[in-house]
Amino acid sequence: MQKAVLVLFLAFAVIELNAIPPEMRAILPPEIVDFILGLRKICTAKIGGLTDADIETYKITNTDEKFKCYMKCMLHEAKWMSPDGTIHYEHILDGMHADVKPILEEIFEKCRDIPDSPEECGKAYNFHVCIAKADPKRYFLP
Fold first, then answer.
1. What is the pLDDT of residues 14-63, one digit of tens each?
2. Distances (CA, A) of 127 to 18, 58, 140
3. What does residue 87 show for φ and ψ, rounded to 5 degrees?
4. CA-CA distance, 142 to 111, in Å (whole number)?
5. Residues 84/75, Cβ–Cβ less than 8 Å
6. Of the four listed, 44, 81, 99, 112, which is most buried by Cβ atoms within 10 Å?
7. Of residues 80, 56, 83, the one with CA closest to residue 67
């Protein structure tokens, strides 16, 4: 459980080790990178049309539906979001790695009320937008 929670938070940026911000690279164990890459493989296969390069160069201002649905898939696969769009904050924090828990608690204070969206994958995107605004230095797409 800790792995899944740590993974997604740390994953809100980019996956290859050389593309992860240095301050995050210092606390990201290799098994977490492997876990993130596994989620990425699952979600890129489900969504289709996205490459690793697309994900690694993603900017939050890109509102392409494929990216939004990729975000939703990653949140579902990590058990951060239920199919109805409910974000499981307590579940995330309960299993959070001690090194990143204070960071995530601060972000969640700003991102508790994520607006629904008429788009199928819009709430996942809205969650990412909030996180990117709350912590732009650490945000990355997993």
1. 334 444 555 555 666 676 667 778 899 999 999 999 998 898 889 999 99
2. 25, 16, 13
3. -90, 130
4. 18
5. no
6. 81
7. 56
Q: What is the Cα–Cα distance from 85 to 120, expressed in whole angstroms?
A: 9
Block residue for tokens 């809100």: 12
CB 104 within 8 A of CB 96: yes
In whole angstroms, how large is the CA radius of gyration of the chain? 14
Find out whether 15 and 37 touch, Cβ atoms under 8 Å: yes
Angle separating helix axes 122-134 and 101-110, nearest 10 degrees: 110
Which of 90, 53, 88, 58 lies closest to 71 in space, CA to CA?
A: 58
What domains lie within the chain, and their CATH numbers?
A: 2-134 (1.10.238.20)
DSSP H helical segments within the chain, as ranges? 2-11, 22-25, 30-47, 52-56, 65-77, 89-94, 101-110, 122-134
Q: How far is CA 84 from CA 81, 102, 120, 122, in A?
A: 8, 27, 10, 12
Cβ neighbours, 10 Å, residue 62? 13
- Which pLDDT tens digit goes with each residue over 67-97? 999 999 999 999 999 988 999 998 888 877 7
